[in-house]
Design brief:
Elements (H helix, E strand, L loop, with lengths): L5 H13 L4 H6 L8 H13 L3 E6 L2 E6 L3 H17 L3 H11 L4 H10 L7
Antiparallel strand pairs: 1-2
Helix pairs in contact: 5-6
């Protein structure tokens, strides 16, 4: 799986929610400023080339749909984050979030327990 740009992720979040859609429908999914039609169409072509989306032709319209689930991509992103920023160590990741979010010791222990780590490891 390939890393997505911010623009590609924005389009994918809309498409995951819609399940499938044409460019005009995807445009309506943007909450803030709506990008140009051609911009979204170009992003979809890139996503197709990356094998993240595909389409089926309905008349003269392209109906786009995701080839991977949001969960699959989220899992990929977390593994990428863990490997590239925390040396593959879940404990380092947990310690970072504990410090950054001012977690107390009980919350940290619960997080490690839920992840299958014990305080003795």
């Amino acid at each position: 799986m390939k890393q997505l740009t911010k623009a590609e992720e924005e389009v994918m979040h809309i498409l995951w929610e819609m399940k499938e859609g044409i460019v005009k429908d995807i445009l309506k999914g943007f909450k803030d400023k709506q990008p140009a039609y051609n911009t979204v169409a170009t992003v979809l072509k890139v996503l197709k080339k990356k094998e993240i989306v595909d389409y089926r032709k309905v008349g003269n319209i392209y109906m786009y749909y995701p080839l991977i689930s949001k969960e699959e991509y989220s899992s990929y992103q977390m593994k990428h984050l863990l490997k590239n920023y925390f040396g593959g160590s879940f404990v380092r990741l947990a310690a970072f979030f504990a410090k950054d979010n001012e977690m107390d010791i009980e919350e940290l222990e619960e997080l490690l327990k839920d992840a299958g780590h014990t305080s003795n490891s």
